[in-house]
Amino acid sequence: MDVKSRNYLLMNRQALERDIKTSYIMDHMVADQVLTLQEEEKVKQQERAAMLINIILEKDNNSYRSFYNALLHEGYRDLAALLQDGIPVFSSGNGKSSLDGMTSYVKRILCEGGVPQRPVVFVTRPKLVDAIKQKLYCLGSDPGWVTVYGMAGCGKTVLTAEALRDHQLLEDYFPGGVHWISVGKQDKAGLLIKLQNLCSRLEHDSTLSQRPPLNIEEAKDRLRLLMLRKYPRSLLVLDDIWDSWVLKAFDNQCQVLITSRDRSVTDAVSGNKYEIHVESGLAHEKGLEVLSLFVNMKISELPEQANCIIRECKGSPLVISLIGALLRDFPSRWEYYLKQLQNKQFKRIRKSSSYDYEALDEAMSISVEQLDNDFKDYYKDLSILPKDVKVPTKVLCILWDMETEEVEDILQEFVNKSLLFCDRNGKSFHYYLHDLQLDFLTEKNRNQLQELHKNIVNQYKKYYKLNMPIPSQEDCMYWYNFLAYHMAGANMQKELRELMFSLDWIKAKTELVGPAHLIHEYVEYSSVLDQKDSIVRENFQEFLSLNGHLLGRQPFPDIIQLGLCQPETSEVYQQAKLRAQSETGAFYLEWINKKSLKNLSRLVVRPHRDAVYHACFSQDRQRIASCGADKTLQVFKTESGEMLLEITAHEDEILCCAFSADDKYVATCSADKKVKIWNSRTGKCMHIYEEHTEQVNCCQFNNRSGQYLLATCSNDTFIKLWDLKGKYCRNTMFGHVNSVNHCRFSPNDEYVASCSTDGTVKLWEVRSANELKTIEIKDFFQNADEQDDVEVLVKCCSWSRNSDMILAVAKNKLLLFDVKTSNLLTQVIVSHHSTIQYCDFCAGDELVAVALSHCSVELWNIKSLSKVADCRGHMSWVHCVTFSPDGSLFLTSSDDQTIRIWETNKVCKSSDAVLKSELDAVFHNGEVMILAIYNQKYIQLINGNTDNIIMQTEPQESLICCCCLSEDLKFAAFGQENGTVKVLQLLDGKVLKYREAYRTSVQHCRFTSDCQTLISSAHDAVIQVWNWQLNECVFLRGHKEAIKDFRLLESAKLLSWSFDGTVKVWNIITGNTEKDFACHGGAVLSCAVSPDGRKFSSTSADKTAKIWSFESSCVLHELKGHEACVRCCTFSPNNKLLATGDDKGDIRIWDILTGGLLHFCSPVTVDEGEPTHGGWVTDLSFSPDSEMLVSSGGYLKWWNVTTGESLQTFYTNGTNLKSIHVSPDFKVYVTVDNLGILYVLQKL
């Protein structure tokens, strides 16, 4: 403290000690951060005024100024005058203070005017400060009012004081000075004292000291004269105004700035009016800055609880400051204060500054207490509003049973008093509470919450009765999102069950918001839903979990049809069946053999719009991160698929993502050559690394929590180690000579393993970054079958839990090595038909999950070398498979845009049959008999009605490629990969005859109607007609390329078509060609014969279809318009129509007579990038009356031929349906998907 200031204190010590009451003085000084809580206690315990003077004498100039201002504020005008000449002078050559850049002029004006000093802990909010200045400029020299309003504790006072620390503003606009008065909640007596003190301050250097004004009117007049004559062009600041009647005392045609919670407080006064709304929350980083200043630490040094505390403070400057001051005094209580905030224990977050209220709850409750009684009840009703939700006016109209205008008037009262916030979105208003206000209300009305929830549900039911909100209504989204929340809050078990177990509700809600929120609600409210039993809730939760990826797409599927695919014991199925039976004229299908199918996935989600390249669990298993070709990083809940984060993270495809060991960060790497680190909760980008020169294929964090090391590998042949504390790469590991595809830390973090296209796995020491050893994987592929000139691309590796073994995958092999010796411990050939894309070790070290290119995932026991599970469900290549840290779950991601979550134990207990897509079906006496190829080695005869296997052959030595049934159901035939054709007796499965017919695999075989002859074709240009009973064979030679297919005509004739673009008619007795049609420039993909036998159609890869006359051998019509290969065609039974389907998913219906296009069969809307039919249209069949059409492709669809509209869609579990067998009455349909699942569907 300056010597002069110190002397003035000592000279006037006696007068000060005799007259002042310390408690109010100390409040101001604590607010100015010049007095601590401990010092305040000390003063209270001892000689109060004397002790305070002693403490001030030991402090700096700031404490002198604060003491002087406090005396002025509290009416000690005479005492303040004694100290005035001792106010420390600001010394600086340019008039600027070396401390904070304010001029001495500004400091003098503010000090004399009693403006609060800047708090010791202060962070700038320049936008708001500038906004206040701008409104003060607007006043100019005219009288008027500037209102700075906002909720309790949002920083109004500090921001207003900061705006006044501007030399130009004060000199140009308020040369008469600034006069600050803290008003607060006052009665008339209190207001009079405030006015008397202000008048006294303004008269303090007057030679004639007047008596204080005796009433408010007198005070108002005196103040008007003082401001007019003595302080023209000055600014009066009224801090913390509560009531409009108070303002009338200051309505003196002067310039006034007020701070208030009530926006409407100036309604009762005249003059120009300007407003500045102070937002209720600081940004997260600003909050951390405040906290760090209080506890004198760098932001990076703050403990983890700091982030949580800022989140719980909801950005409130008041709460952050309260907590910061407490932590400054009690630095070990981070966890304690966090718990108090989380448990809404506002009373325990007590006064630690001179803020006007003892505790946080008091600061908020005093605003509510100011309301009229009616308004208090309305405000109490808001206790049950969900957090962070803007509620439309219509919801509150329903709650209070009022007109919109009445409701808006009530809510405006709350908005004016900063008890509620309003978002004016176009024409409609949406209202919301600050989180702290909602926490306060919830805590205050805890005992009444159930009744309040009940009331809003009853009001909803009264308003909507049995109807549901429709999307055009402004309140629609609120009810779909929160009606269940209110029912659960009211513990209305019956109503909640009726709602959540309603297919109508599920359909309406998922169409609007997708399935994840509903799944979340089943989990969240399970305690209410399961009061009788959990079975029904589990039925609906499983239904949504496994069909959610379908419910999120366009066109929206028929939920009743999806429900009919559930197990017959499921409540979903039973409800769907009742609905289907009650809807007249609707078209629904029963999957009559579905009882054999077990759903193995636990959840299917479709977060991306393109291929999903990678996905991984967080360490706590609660979240999943995924990335892919759509350049986004997604984070969602494991339980429900509910989206938590969606970030467009890179400029090119994202190839890998990984959680850090503490789940705080997610790393991504991309084809754009960049590696990025993200905060996994907020989505903020923390680091960008750009040192790789080619696409980055893989990123992996180390396993030890607290130390953030990241390994990345790239097509540039390098592996890099990054320490997140540094900006640059810590180590670069050289050694590979080709692209590095994958890298992984060992569980003990001592090593990094890398896999490369150069055919090696390398192990590196983490500490030194030196190469430890190289394992030459390509050496294990150099035998007769695997040519050594073929590149051995090592895709992936995985460590055992003890870091002793490493598993590598290349081509179709799993290879397990001992890390110490590099010896091969074991190898498994997983598949002969597809390559391994990815592998992962389960936590127990016995199970290995393998992702394959042919859509499936297999689990292998690496000790017994046996396959323990085959997980089918994906419709395209599977890129990734990853176990959860505890091994109880694993996830798979695929080109089909989905991620599937599986339960390891459930999958390992299952063994579903896999059928090939080639099958034959005969419809006989109301039954359907199906001949199918099981696991490529057996022939099965299945009763489609009962799903019973009637006959199964012995395993065949060569894989089976095709099969057929005789019409009398006595015989069956099949063709094999080695070119053999066999005929067997269905009664016992005994092979009657066989013929080694071809050198290539047999593609098609069919019996003639007398069952004595078998016709077959293979991957060559010859058709063989084999009378198997006489063992005679006729060869049909003439095509120049492989036969695509054939069909029998009447009178021993056969129609065949080929990749050579020709169609031929044969006499199967003589083997001669009777007709030869040069049909297309490209391969002929299908042919159909008209019901009258006079015409046939051909379709081709050249994107055209043609109608031909058998008689004239001429083309009648060339049908153009398809934009892709025309894959299939069929004539209608009435001989008037031809339907064609192409590889784009389009179906066209043509008039046979004119060749004109009648209809284009396509859904109204399809998701972007989705083919119309989920893929190629592979088969078509008309109903007997020619009014309906069924098509197969990615799934099955039924169409109205007259309108071209879709009647029904049946989504199979898999995709790529090659054909559909239809009963003569068009009521039974048989097909197999690419997962090998058999579907026998019956029209309901």
Approximately how much helix is present in the residues?
25-40%
Q: Please outline the major beta sheet.
A: 5 strands, parallel
Structural class: alpha+beta
Radius of gyration: 41 Å
* Uncertain runs: 91-99, 351-357
Our estimate of the beta-strand percent is 25-35%
Instruction: Return the average pLDDT rounded to an integer.
Output: 87
Q: Please tally the β strands and state the result.
A: 68
- Arrangement of strands in the largest sheet: 2-3-4-1-5
- Overall 3D geometry? elongated
Distance between the termini: 95 Å
- Please, how many helices? 33
Strand and helix map with partners:
Elements: H1 3-11, H2 13-19, H3 22-31, H4 37-45, H5 48-57, H6 61-73, H7 77-84, H8 104-113, H9 126-139, E1 144-149, H10 156-163, H11 167-173, E2 178-184, H12 188-202, H13 216-230, E3 235-241, H14 244-248, E4 255-260, E5 272-277, H15 284-295, H16 305-313, H17 317-329, H18 334-342, H19 360-369, H20 373-381, E6 391-392, H21 393-400, H22 404-416, E7 421-425, E8 428-432, H23 435-444, H24 449-464, H25 476-489, H26 493-500, H27 503-513, H28 516-524, H29 526-529, H30 535-551, H31 559-564, H32 571-582, E9 589-591, E10 601-605, E11 612-617, E12 623-628, E13 632-637, E14 643-648, E15 654-659, E16 665-670, E17 675-679, E18 685-689, E19 696-701, E20 709-714, E21 719-723, E22 729-733, E23 740-745, E24 751-756, E25 760-765, E26 771-776, E27 794-799, E28 805-810, E29 813-818, E30 824-829, E31 836-841, E32 847-852, E33 857-861, E34 866-871, E35 878-883, E36 889-894, E37 899-903, H33 904-908, E38 915-924, E39 927-934, E40 938-943, E41 948-952, E42 960-965, E43 971-976, E44 980-985, E45 991-996, E46 1002-1007, E47 1013-1018, ...
Parallel strand pairs: 1-4, 1-5, 2-3, 3-4
Antiparallel strand pairs: 6-8, 7-8, 9-68, 10-37, 11-12, 12-13, 13-14, 15-16, 16-17, 17-18, 19-20, 20-21, 21-22, 23-24, 24-25, 25-26, 27-28, 28-29, 29-30, 31-32, 32-33, 33-34, 35-36, 36-37, 38-39, 39-40, 40-41, 42-43, 43-44, 44-45, 46-47, 47-48, 48-49, 50-51, 51-52, 52-53, 54-55, 55-56, 56-57, 58-59, ...
WD repeats: 605-646, 647-688, 689-732, 733-774, 871-903, 995-1027, 1036-1076, 1077-1118, 1119-1160
Subcellular location: Cytoplasm
Function: Oligomeric Apaf-1 mediates the cytochrome c-dependent autocatalytic activation of pro-caspase-9 (Apaf-3), leading to the activation of caspase-3 and apoptosis. This activation requires ATP.
